[in-house]
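During the second year of the project, the team shifted from modelling isolated chains to modelling whole assemblies. The rationale, set out in the original proposal, was that interfaces cannot be judged from single-chain predictions alone. As a representative example for this report, we include one of the complexes processed in the last quarter. Its constituent sequences, exactly as entered into the pipeline, are reproduced here:
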Amino acid sequence: NAGVTQTPKFQVLKTGQSMTLQCAQDMNHEYMSWYRQDPGMGLRLIHYSVGAGITDQGEVPNGYNVSRSTTEDFPLRLLSAAPSQTSVYFCASRRGQNTEAFFGQGTRLTVV
Amino acid sequence: GENVEQHPSTLSVQEGDSAVIKCTYSDSASNYFPWYKQELGKGPQLIIDIRSNVGEKKDQRIAVTLNKTAKHFSLHITETQPEDSAVYFCAASTPGTYKYIFGTGTRLKVLA
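Output from the structure prediction step:
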């Protein structure tokens, strides 16, 4: 099992550009989430999904879109990148509520 | 909304000494409290978790204690080793919310 796979690992964008961060898991987990990690602010939840076709907003959803068309994939879309979106992004999946979350290796995004 | 406070933000200990990291949560309905370790350049990994019907849980050199009345829980690492150096995150989960709320992290340095 590969676990949770995120691509790309690094990305530089210009302000206003759009892009999609990919996340895939092969553990047949229902729950998937996107977090951003900023110095001194821990892991903040952007969007999450409790199953295919179901998504909801987390703490900091503005500027990001998600979709969940399959159990395996949960892409995060930046609509119009801003320097404030410079961060490290983590995707996580888990089997259900109150179970271990498995994280990807992260995507370091810089917006200039 | 739910909030998790974590202290200290940095902690340096001598090899062999103990380390304690404390977290306080705001939602008294929270019932699941995992701890994650994040090594440099990697995603967080679960090291131990505790549910609200248990006051303490141990796994070798790691233990977690929960005080529901005071709404705080702590991570205890005994006989620290250099490989314990990492960033540690606490989290709390409330039934029905599907979300883990993370603390801001503690950078632990174990000095040889």
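The mean pLDDT of chain B is 95. Chain B touches chain A at residues 1, 6, 9, 31-32, 34, 36, 41-46, 49, 51, 89, 93, 95, 98-105 (CB under 8 Å).
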